[in-house]
Amino acid sequence: MKHDDIRHMLSEYIDGAVTRKDKAAIESHLKSCDECRSALTELKKTIEHIKKVEEMESPAWMTPKIMAKVRAEAKQKRGIFRRLFYPLAIKLPIQTVAVLFLAITAFTIYQSINPMDKYAEVPGFIAPKRTARCRHVDERTKNET
After folding, report:
1. Number of domains into which the chain is organized
2. 43: pLDDT strictly greater than 80
3. Which residues make Cβ contacts (< 8 Å) with residue 138, sequence separation at least 6?
4. pTM of this prediction?
5. Which residues fall within 8 angstroms of residue 25, CB to CB, at 6 or more apart?
6. How far does Cα 59 stand from its chain's mean position?
7. Most confident region among 31-35, 53-57, 135-139 by mean pLDDT
8. From start to end of the chain, where are the E strands?
């Protein structure tokens, strides 16, 4: 185990919440490391001080005031999310229509970028379609060829 890992596990060591293997590793490290030993001593002193502090009851006005602030903050956070995504019954159709509108607009703009391409000349190697004028005119052209 690394020095930092053992340092972070000192609280668990005091509480007895480490495995036997970790406990043995921590104890062997504590024998050789003055820094961790002093950190363990300080941690134990802190725990003793906390146990000696008397428990105080908060004033009657404090709890409702704190809870009101918590609810207000939760409402603000929830409000932004809800405004963007809820109620789905209303927002989903509106968003669908918006996406379709954007897609149609993008397609229309794409089609109109080069309007001259629509009217470009037909290349010479493609024969234009013949329209039947008259039956006797077509028969004459067949006989001539």
Report:
1. 2
2. yes
3. 132
4. 0.40
5. 1, 6
6. 41
7. 31-35
8. none
